[in-house]
């Protein structure tokens, strides 16, 4: 049995997700912003152990709590798409200097590539790279949970910005069409900001795909 919780934190209201395997008491986190105490509350209150932090991309508002979580749980493995690893480390490209006035630099323990399949806490995860918001944005598709965690790629009725360094508007739209909208229509989409949606709703209603 799996339990998912979400908390919205950080300077630009980032959705951070936690999934706990209630049989093994292991947990994975998706993105980490803002107050790490709040992020870890659900895990700690259940006596669970976080084993992995999956970062959807390298922008500061999705990663600025990562090092603090790592300091509390040194064994946790931080994952990011291979093409965003350098953004994660660079305070200028990851926008922390311009938005926060101080640099955030995080090093991943592991990188994943497009199409790679991993398994964590009993969940099979397909890594789908969708360049456009950043050059190596990674979406984590979990067929067994009928869910995808897509960072700032696809939003409810919208898409991510493409005017930051390494962004590409045309690539973003085309990659969403070819890589995400081909998933089952009842797939739940958990974005990095705002409310959840489904693939079917976005195919039918999202302005960018008309």
- How widely separated are the two ends? 38 Å
Number of strands: 14
Number of helical segments?
Answer: 7
Classify the oligomer. Answer: single chain
Order of helices and strands: EEEHEHHEHHEEEEEEEHEEH
Round the mean pLDDT to the nearest integer and report it. 96
> What summary fits the major beta sheet?
6 strands, mixed
Instruction: Name the shape in a single word.
Output: globular
* Strand line-up in the sheet with most strands: 1-2-3-4-5-6
Tell me roughly what share of residues is in helical segments.
Answer: 10-25%
The poorly predicted ranges are: none
* Gyration radius, rounded: 16 Å
Beta-strand percentage range: 25-35%
The helix-and-strand class reads alpha/beta
Kindly describe this structure:
By secondary structure, the chain is α/β, with parallel strands linked by helices. The chain is built from 7 helices and 14 strands. It has a 6-stranded mixed β-sheet with strand order 1-2-3-4-5-6, with helices on one face. A 6-stranded mixed β-sheet has the order 7-8-9-10-13-14. Strands 11-12 form a two-stranded antiparallel ribbon. The longest helix is centred in the last third of the chain and has 12 residues, at 169-180. The protein is globular.
Structural key phrases:
single chain, 14 strands, 6-stranded mixed β-sheet, 210 residues, globular, alpha/beta
Gist of the model:
With 210 residues, the protein is an alpha/beta fold. It has helices at 36-45, 60-63, 66-72, 85-89, 96-100, 169-180, 199-205, and strands at residues 2-9, 14-21, 26-30, 49-54, 77-81, 110-112, 117-120, 123-129, 138-142, 147-151, 154-155, 158-159, 188-191, 197-198.
């Amino acid at each position: 049995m799996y339990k998912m919780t979400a908390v919205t934190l950080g300077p630009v209201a980032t959705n951070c997700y936690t999934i706990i395997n209630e049989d093994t008491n292991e947990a994975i986190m998706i993105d980490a912003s803002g107050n790490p105490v709040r992020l870890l509350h659900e895990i700690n209150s259940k006596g669970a152990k976080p084993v992995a932090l999956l970062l959807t991309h390298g922008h500061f508002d999705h990663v600025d709590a990562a090092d603090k979580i790592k300091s509390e749980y040194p064994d946790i493995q931080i994952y990011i798409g291979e093409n965003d690893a350098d953004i994660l480390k660079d305070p200028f490209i990851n926008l922390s200097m311009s938005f926060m006035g101080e640099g955030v630099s995080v090093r991943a323990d592991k990188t994943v590539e497009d199409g790679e399949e991993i398994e964590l806490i009993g969940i099979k995860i397909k890594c789908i790279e969708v360049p456009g918001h950043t050059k190596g944005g990674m979406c984590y598709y979990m067929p067994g949970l009928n869910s995808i965690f897509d960072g700032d790629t696809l939003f409810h009725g919208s898409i991510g910005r493409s005017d930051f360094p390494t962004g590409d508007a045309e690539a973003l739209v085309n990659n969403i069409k070819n890589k995400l909208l081909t998933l089952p229509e009842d797939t739940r989409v958990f974005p990095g900001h705002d409310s959840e949606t489904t693939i079917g709703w976005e195919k039918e209603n999202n302005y960018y795909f008309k």
